[in-house]
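Quick one:
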Amino acid sequence: MEPLPRISDPELSFVMPCYNEQEIIGYTIPRFTAAFRNAGIKLELIAVDNGSRDRTGEMIREMAANDPAIIYHRVEVNEGYGNGVLNGIKVCRAPWVGIIPCDGQVDAEDVVALFDSVKTTNGNVLGKVRRRFRMDGLWRKVVSVSYNLMVRAMWPKLGSIDVNGSPKILPRDVVHAMDLKSKNWFLDPEIVIKAHYMGLRVLEFNVFARMRGNGLSHVRVGTCWEFLRNLLIFRFSTEMPKWRRNLNTELKPEKTRIAA
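Output:
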């Protein structure tokens, strides 16, 4: 099937990486695009087939042939959640860019409400959710709380108490200025930490986080050690000071300020 012509002048581009998600995207993707359509918001959803080996890519292509809001994008080799997002960002055209997993844990209507709030701002903002009510088990809650405490210990003024909470929505020019690098799950903390250094105001909405209806989570025990390792590297490497110096020279002072 051939994809439909892309929507002209979308208001919002969302990147949704999908890795071996044939059991769930038939529910989550149509519901997501329908929520924005019902709200009268011109959405383009970059559904990234992130190196899947099942029918994920085929299903996305079929949906794209029937819904002009859905854009199929393929990453041949899976290098992680973050790599799928980074590839999808290159395809985005709208002035606002969002990222969201395809697991459907956050209701599409809550994502619409989040965008309704951020689009009325001056653009110096990061819109995101805080998974205030979670149904993904005691172990995941303990890990999440412990991880967020470590992040806050390193960046006390971060402005978020759920750094991995997605969706996240930012102006497209801010996303490009962030020069995001993380190809794994650390992409979410990288966005929040760089938003802090850029002086962005954080709008964090409390949402109900559902359990997965189908499919398997790709977060493993090793992911916790990966988070900690990346956190320490990110905090004490020379990359952040270099990025901050470049940001000072590239962005106009009235657009973004560098936080202390």
